[in-house]
Structures are given as C-alpha cells and as structure tokens.
User: Fold these one by one.
Assistant:
Number 1:
Amino acid sequence: MAAVRVDGLEDVWEDGCGDIVYTLARVLDAVEPGRLVGRSVKRVGWTLYVGGEKQDLRLFNEFVVLAVGKAASSMAAMLLKQLEGRPVRGLVVISHGLQPRQSLKPLETIHAAHPIPDTSSQRAGQAILEYAKSCGAGSLVFVLLSGGASSLAVLPAEGVTVEDKAAAAAALMKAGASIEELNTVRKHLSAIKGGWLAKHLRCRTYTLILSDVVGDRLDVIGSGPTVPDPTTYADALNVIRRRKAQVPENVLKHLEAGARGALEETPKPGDPCFKNIRNIIVGSSLDAVRAAASTLRRKGYRTLVLTGMLSGEAREAARLLAAIALEVRRSGLPLRPPAAVVAGGETVVTVRGGGVGGRNQELALALVLHLREMRGFSAASMGTDGVDGPTDAAGAMVTDRTIPNAVEKGLSPEEYLENNDSHTFFKKVGGLIHTGPTGTNVGDITIILIQSR
C-alpha cells in the first residue's frame, strides 16, 4: 500500500485521522498509472485491444512510445509489457531527480523541469517532435500524457523563448489562473501543443491520458498536443488581461500577432490531421473519489461523494465544504454521522501574501477556520501527485484540535491564511501530509469525516 505520513498524527489518531490516512493510501493505490493503463490496453496473442479497438500487432513495422508527465514512467512500463516481443522505440520525459521504478528499455529517458520549464524541457519537446516526424505508415504510435506534461516538454513558437514561456506561466500561476486558462496561453506559444503535434503524426496514433484536469477536457490536459484546439489567440490574450498577469513583451507581441491573423491558428476540430488519432482517458479524479468512497463505506461511514470537479479559489471551496459538514452535524442532512464527505478536483490560489503554501494546505487552513466551533471532525486535502505548491508536502490534515493547538502556541491562523502562509502554519502546528512523489496525478482529493456525538 502507498505510504502516507502526517506530521503530528500520533496526537490525533483517535479523531478519525487514521481512517483518513488509510483511505488516502488506498486512493493512491487505486490511481497507480500502470493499473489504469492496463484497464484500457490489453493484449491477447497478436491482438492488442486499445480502448475497445482491435489492432493486429503483425501489421505494424514498429511501435513508438512518447510518454511525458508525472506518471510517464509507470504508464510506459505497462505499455511495454503489452508490446513485449515487438520492435519498440521512443522516449519517456520525467521530472529532474526522479528515477523510473521499472526498466524502460529500449526507451530513451529524458529529465526535464517542472512546474516552470527550462532548456531541458525544450530539449524534451524537440525530441518528441523529431520522433513524431520519423514515424511512417507502418508505425503505431502511443502518446502517453499525464499531469506536468505542459512544462516537462515545451517547444516555443517562433519568436518566443523558453524563458518567455516560463515567465508567462509563473505570472499566470501567481495570479491564480486555472489550468484551463494557463494552457490556453501555453498552446498559443507552442509548436507542439494545441494540436500541433498531430500535424506531424502521419500514422495510427493512440493518446492515452491520465487526467489531472477538472472536467477532463482533452484540449487542456497536457495542453492537448494531439487534440483539436477550440481556443484562439484572442482567448489567450483575454486570459492575460483578465488575470492582469505581467508577462514578457515577446509573449504579448506573439499573441497580438496571432489575434490579428498574422499567424496560423492552432489546428481546429475537423482538421484532417486528427483522422488517425484517438484520444483515450485511462484515469481521472473520479477514480480517486470512488476509491475513497468505497474505502470509507467499508470503514462504516455514511459517505457522500460531493463532486469530482471541485475548482475555483481554495478558500471558497473550503467555505462550501465547511457548510456541508456543519449541516451534517446540525441536522443530519444530507447524511447522518458517522459521515464522510469526499470531493476531487483542483482548486487555485491567488497569491496576495508573501508566505509559502499550496492549494491543498490553504484549503485545509480555510476549512478548519470555518469549522472552529465544531467538534468531532477531521479532514484532509491532498494532491495525488504528492506535491502541493512549492513545498515538500502533499497537503494537510486538520481536526477540531488544530485551532486550539495554534492558539496555545500563540499563532493566529487568520494571519497565516491572509499571508498565503499555510505551509508555515502547519509546520508549526502539525498536520502536513507527506507522500513523496507518487508517480501519478489525477488532481486533488479532499475528505471530511464527521464522527457521531
């Protein structure tokens, strides 16, 4: 079972935190990328079933695997098992410092930067393009996408540098841009995203996708390199203006040129370059929330799956979740304690303070402030990739003792929230969740447990 550790857990084990830790570990097991790929890709003799379609392996000269993202190595390893004995080539792009847990031979491995791209990300993007161009009619291509792909492999459009793209991404994230908004801009600064990679794939291609995007929009996950792009240069400009993001001049010039028709738009629905490409979601937030719900039911909790599409500002999401928990305690609606409320998705944080934190830690801090008068609860919010913002934590856990413990230490939770300093708060009070890099990514999972009186 996956390893999940919480700072200070030994002091609050009886408050339901043990059930949450166990549930989070089961969630990570359920969304293990190899397991999810194995549901959609199965081999029987010389027949490979991909998303229900049949392919005769003897009809292809070669099989090309292009994997990029936080789950790239595990996804590629499972696919290699299905292609055993056939001629395979390709590459896997993963973050600096990570090492594949399984052998990926004969695939090439490239390490690149996340969440802000650099020259290593550009080398990875160029390598992916070269592999795509080298494929012919006898090739069967598998593009494996997961969260982080947008920064791990980049190839800037003409007139834009990787430094420009990195600065634009950083500015938009700081301004609280959603992943949809961020990737709308990324697609229009790229030579491979927004469907451009499909222009170079002149053979049968399956893109297997592990979604970390709320709503599973294909054009947003990994910035949609093999998907028609419904957004425009004008849309990208509007994102920057709406978020008041300070982006490099080169970025503005490029987008403005595209908006006035001086540059070719990204490939749109109906473009013939997509006729041989099929995009298949192999796993998503729903897999995480379903695994959490089934585990908690077995633990004896009446369980409500609120949504797999939680989004918006972390603080506002916390307000909604707190209102539901308070109603459960007050009236037993929509379910009586012992109760569990589960939500998946991905929120954002508009940074206004100078602190350190992540969206899950901020959500947990805001949530416990709304529940400070309630007794008999525990809650956690965690990124399934094991990373929450620019910190070493995956998220945070809170209980009805969190605020009293903070007050006893002379801390003001409100001040830490106002300064976007949730990580420092939980480091002092306890509750930081640690998993290390999990090798998967289906967004975030939030659990609230309300015990019987």
Number 2:
Amino acid sequence: MSDLRIMIIDDEPLAIERLADLLHRMTGVEVVSTHHGAADALEALPQARPDLIMVDIEMPKIDGFDFVEALAKQGWLKPESAPCICFVTAYPQFASDAFETGALDFLCKPVRLSRLEKTIDRCRLTLAQRGAFARLQDLGSQLDGLRESRSAPLAPSFWVQQRGQMMRVSIEALEWVEAEGEYVRLHLRDQSFLLRSSISSIADRLADFGFARVHRSTIINGSRLATVQSSRRGMKAVLESGVTVTVGRTYRPAVRALHWKETLSPPLAVNS
C-alpha cells in the first residue's frame, strides 16, 4: 500500500510543525507539502497531488472555507479523484459549517495523536471505498458490452477430419454447403471437406450468419452471392467464385431476401 500523501495549510508555523511532527510518528503517511497560505497551496496542488489536505479555517485573505470553494471552482473536487479535506481549528463552533462542506473530518487544536490516527484511518477507508466504487463504475460501464457480446450469436466453426487429424474450418471461409447422403460437403474457395451432419442441422447453425438454404440439398453464404439468374428454366445463384447452384422453387423467396449491408456492399444483381 502506498503512503498517504498529506498537505498541511496553516498560517501559524508552530501549528504546522506540531501537526507534521504527529504525522511523522505514524507509519504509511507522507507530508508532501506545507503552506502558510491558501493561495500558495492552490498553486502547489498539481505537483503535490495530496490524498488528504489538512487546512486551518481561520487564515488571513483566504480562509479554509474559501480554499475549499476555490478547489471546487478549479475542478479539484471531482468525486473520483478529489482529495479528502480535514479542517483543523481552535474554534469548535465551526464544526457544523465544516461538515456541511463535505469535509472528511474536523479536528480541534491542540490535535491529539489518537484523534489524528482516527482521521487517517477514516481517510484510508474513504479512498478505498472510492477506489471500489470507481472499479464498480468501470464494471458497470462494461456490462452493456458484455451483455451484447453474450446475446450476440457466436459464429460457429466446424471441425473436420483431414488426413488423420482434426482441422478447424471457419464459416468466414465457407462459400456453400451441399448434402451428400449422411454427410454434408463444406465448400471453400479452393478445397472442400466432408462433415457427418444433416443439411437441415447445418442450415439451422448457419441461419444467423448470413447463410441461406437455396435448395433442399444446398446452402450458400449470402456474402459470397454475386448474381441471381432467373429464366424459364428456373433460378440459379452464382457465387463470387463462379460456382452456380440451382435454387429450388420453394427457396426462391429466401434468395430474393438475401442482401448485403447497404453501407458496405452494392445491391444484389438479378439477371433474367
């Protein structure tokens, strides 16, 4: 665990010295800067990067409350990264006003070590909770994406036997599928593989990924469809590789429904 970085602001040098001495007796804390005025402290903030600012309330020109207001105006009091504020004063009547500002704690002078230790513990707890909250927010921001990825259909691949070993065939490389008895043949552009499965089962697996059954024994990859040829003899689907497959009468609506995303591909050409 890294040391707790502490800034002290007080117009009384002896008060700074006493508070710094108490803090030096504690483990896991580091006094990163001390300041006799709020204006000087504001300038030092970017470099000091304190986790906890211990500031006197009664100071000339800019008092402790003014200092906190200046922090807010400069954007230092963001929930995820704001330093904790502890007011230190000889005037206990300021306590209610101090806590209304959202201060972590309020210490009365002379500060006792046992009481200061409670402040440090409270600061550590606040920072830990803030870190946990930030992690929870990060997780929350990812949940929508996680849900989408979980609900999105996973593109299947097929494992086929080739020369005594199993080979993975990605559907991105698949052009068309045809039935061969108790098997189907998976056609890629320059090779094909037999897979023991029914054509109906394969059609169901590929339906969500742009494939369409165009015949009782044939499935095509819609993204590889180049043209559809219609004539008196019937309809044929021509793939980009030049392969031509017959379209069954009952499957013609499915072929006509095939389309690419408008922003990525040209409209489907139909030749008669």
Number 3:
Amino acid sequence: MKGPKAIIFAAGLWCVWICRNSMCINNEQMSIQRVSTNITNATESIMHAFPSLQSGHLERYIRWNNNNFDCNILNVDGSCLGTPTRAGFGGLIRNSAGYYFTGFSGFIPSSSDILQAELSAIYFGLSIAINLGFAPLACYSDSIHAITSIKEPCSKFHVYAVLIHEIQELLSHANVSLHHTLREGNQCADFLAKLGASSNDKLLTHSQPPDELRPLIRLDALGTLFLRD
C-alpha cells in the first residue's frame, strides 16, 4: 500500500495502539469519536511533516468542517434536478463536534437557476441561524460562484442584486463568516438541497434529521476523510 491511504492506515494503527494502552494501563475511557479525531489529526500531521509522501494528493482528502472552526457550523447547498428542472436548497446547523441542531430545505417555483438556488440556501441558512441565536457561526457553501457574488462588489443590475444585498446585510450585522468547501465536505447539505428540489415546500425546517441523513451526519461527526473525485 502506498500514498495517502497508507498514511491513514499507519496513523490508524498508531492511534488504536495508543488508545489500547490508555484504556488498559491508565484505565482511561476513549470514545470512537475521539479515536477517529485522533486518527484524522495524526494523518494531517504526517502529511504536513512529510510532503513527499503525499504524491500531490493532500488536497484530495476532504472532511466536514475542514477549516476546524470551533463554533457552530452551517452547511448550505443548492440543487437543480429532473426534467423539467426543479430548483431547491437546503442546509443544516451543527456544533463543531457534529451535533445536529436543525436543518431546512425548500423548493424554488419556476426556477432552474443553480445560482439562485445556492444564494437562497445561504440566505435562508443565515437567517434561520441568526434568528435562533446560533452565532458565532461559520457558513460553508460549495459554490465558488455564489461566494464570489457575495464577497465582491455587486452591480445593481445583477439579476439577484436584492438577494445578494440581503445576504451581505446578514453577514455585516452578525458574528458569522462565509467560507468555501468542496462538495465532499458538504454532503449533508447536498442531501437536504435535493430533498428541497424534489418537494413542493417553499421552506421546511427539520427539527430532527431525516432518517436517510443520519448516516451522513454520523460520518461527518467521526471526522471521516472523503476522497476528492
């Protein structure tokens, strides 16, 4: 075995051995989540210490909250599905350990524009989070186009100028920040965005995650590394 997978395997063996010693010798309790986090951190440390081992693939391994923000985390996404195309959006709010607080999804009638879907996801996500008092907050979107449209000066003639301005207002009046993530770190939001696009609800909140979403939330909380396509 060679490359990043070998590094993950070696880090896993080492961390499991350390865990075994801590439990047997020091009678220390060690959760699966903690062991997984230790493996992820050890893998990243080895990759940074020995860049020649990466074979140029460090950036190809992505995990949720890849920037390691120690605050509440909002993931959002937009989706366009089917023929004729239906646009939707969705997202969810968790703490930095991956504990689920709430989620949302929605359908945009008479639209097939992915940019509108991505911007709507950011707007509704920030609005819900701020209204529920979840700031400080780091918001992740996998749409570079949407993030650029928000962070750069926006022409008043832009088709979504009003929506972009409202997002900028939310960002300026609350302790929140907006960041890009790759889609492998945004799979839970992608699920909810597709749920929104396939429904007829303009905005629906999910106090509990849908059953099909729970395994994805669990993987994120464990710090699972996903291979970038």
Number 4:
Amino acid sequence: MVMDFSGGPWLDHAPAKLLDFDLKALSQLRLPVLLINGERDHADFVEVSDRLEATLPDAERIRIPEAGGFPTWEYPGRVNAEVRQFLERVG
C-alpha cells in the first residue's frame, strides 16, 4: 500500500484552503451518517470529524484502533465490519 501511494497531497505546495461548512444546513440533515477516523488520525481530520459529529443530528462515529489517516486502506476488514453493522442498524 505504501509503495503504491504517490504522496501527491503532501507534495503539493499550494496554500491550504479551509473547508467552509454550511453548519446550519448540516444541522438539518435527517440522515444517519457514519464518521470514521483512525485512532492515530491526523489532528486536522479529527477536528473536522469533531465538528461534523457535533453538528449532524444523527451522526455516529467510530475510531479504528491502530489506524492512521487511511483506515479503509490500513484495516479494510475492520472498516467493512463497522460499516456493515452501521447499515444493519439504520437500514
């Protein structure tokens, strides 16, 4: 996996752009949402998930143990099991 990753996002020298969430619109979303972070995820990703979890009325959040910023690549079996359980609960 590491050998296949180009590192492009970290090699781009363009200034970072802040995401502008429409928090009011998100707070009115009436869908179950699953947020996924790795236990060792980048602080910026965790902060975005924190904001989304606090805003979305029906958000559920999981943290994949030992994973970093790419839990779906690092531990696809764990992530798939969590997604399957989520879909069974909300389906």
